[in-house]
Amino acid sequence: MRLILTLVALLFALPVQAQDALLLRPERVFDGIDPRPHTGWSVLVRGNRIEAAGPDVRAPADARVIDLPGQTLMPGLIEGHSHLFLHPYNETSWDDQVLHEPLALRTARAVNHARATLMAGFTTVRDLGTEGAGYADAGLRRAINEGIVPGPRMLIASRAIVATGAYGPKGFEPGVEVPLGAEEADGADLVRVVRSQIGAGADLVKLYADYRWGPGEPSRPTFSQAELTEAVEAAHSAGRQVAVHAGTAEGMRRAILAGADTLEHGDAGTPEIFRLMAEHGVALCPTLAATDQITRYRGWDGVEPAPQNVLTKRSAFAAARAAGVEICMGGDVGVYAHGNNALELELMAAQGMPAAEVLIAATSGNAAIFDLTDRGAVRAGLLADLVAVEGDPTADISAVRAVRLVIKDGQIARDERTAAR
Ligand SMILES: [Zn+2]
């Protein structure tokens, strides 16, 4: 007994092990805020934080030094609109995923999707609904946080909320119960469902302000103004943001007036609606990539002029930017392959947004919109979520695909410098 006590006392007497330090020396640093990259900067990581970044950072004696010649070091990218529980619709239609894929299968896929996302340099995702996979996103988030499987930090919307009758799958005998892509709620019950999803672990609330009531119909509003306003109020009072699917002008208008934090899609937004968005400080996740990919699945070969729905999406993006709406980087990935998140960045740049602005949207911009004050920039004190890519993505946005090193929470998650050889 005395020996044990002595050993325990000895253990406590040992000095605390200093956390490992890592000095990164890239060709340049894109810091997430300044559109111009900094040449000659080094970044010192200690534990899970950035300890220093700048031109005069010296390596402490204990630091491991990693040289990244020809590469740009930048903040870990933040995906603003993902569905880790979906896989591309040209593999399996959305209806068939929701109706016929067992939860365990969908979860197994989601584990792979999370890994692919992190390996692509996306260290945070805002996952906007499991689309029928219940609260499995909360389990995945926990598995990632506990280090059981690799993946990005997840902000989750869990089941998401739709008006009764508005969301699919559809086309069954009336009264037959089929799995749905989200939880139905209306009227006063809507507030109860907002609270129950938050209670079950949702980091934010996702509402659908409009949708196609029947197959082949155009989208029309779902929730009333009063319903949206009450739902947003209940979420905000619980400290949760609200993301609203809105493609029609009227759905967008109601969501803006309700106090939504972000709108998703915005296809039929008018200049007046985008002005209202800007006035109310509501950000837009344009999801250019989802429209592009779905249209290709239906046969578009990418030749211009693009089909009308693609042109509509592009002009909405341009109108939102012209009105001064803050642009979130969110592609609706899951409609297309996880790990191909860069597609949205490329399409934003192709529509005239300067590459550096696109990168700011995908880092400090999304961090600010989602109220994530601990990440999104290469700054002392922030989380050490970093990615190094070959080349200069502020000159050519597609350089974000040439990932060489991914660091999440101070740990190396991908090191292509050795893995590829
Ligand atoms: Zn979505």
TrEMBL record:
Entry keyword set: Hydrolase, Signal
Species per Swiss-Prot/TrEMBL record = Brevundimonas subvibrioides
Start and end of every Amidohydrolase-related domain? 72-412
Which GO MF terms does the UniProt record name? Answer: hydrolase activity, acting on carbon-nitrogen (but not peptide) bonds
Query: Which positions make up the signal peptide?
Result: 1-18
Q: Could you tell me what this protein is called?
A: Amidohydrolase
> Coiled coil where?
none
